[in-house]
Amino acid sequence: MKSFHNVTVDSLANIYFDGRVVSHSIHFPDGTKKTLGIIFPGTYRFTTGAPELMEIIDGTCEVSIDGSNSTKFIPTDDSFEVPGDSAFTISVNSGVCQYICSFLPV
Prior knowledge:
By secondary structure, the chain is an all-beta fold. The chain has strands at residues 8-9, 14-16, 21-27, 33-39, 42-47, 52-58, 61-65, 72-74, 78-82, 87-92, 97-103.
């Protein structure tokens, strides 16, 4: 989904890695939250509290989830899940990667 209706948007951005990863949080009437963001070229490590679904809506990335010995290529219109209380490393080799992160129920 590339557009959302009936949501509240946090106007202040979540800025990571000196502005190389930027997102905005959106809140739904049912209490759920997503972040919409962009990742510039580089390699970044994130930790999770809740499980997450990362949908790549433009660009590509490579992802390695803690506990896995493999790196997975994620193209546009593909996704990956990260367990709660975990971490992952995401790499963007060129261009800009745009994503939607959904926080999943525990």
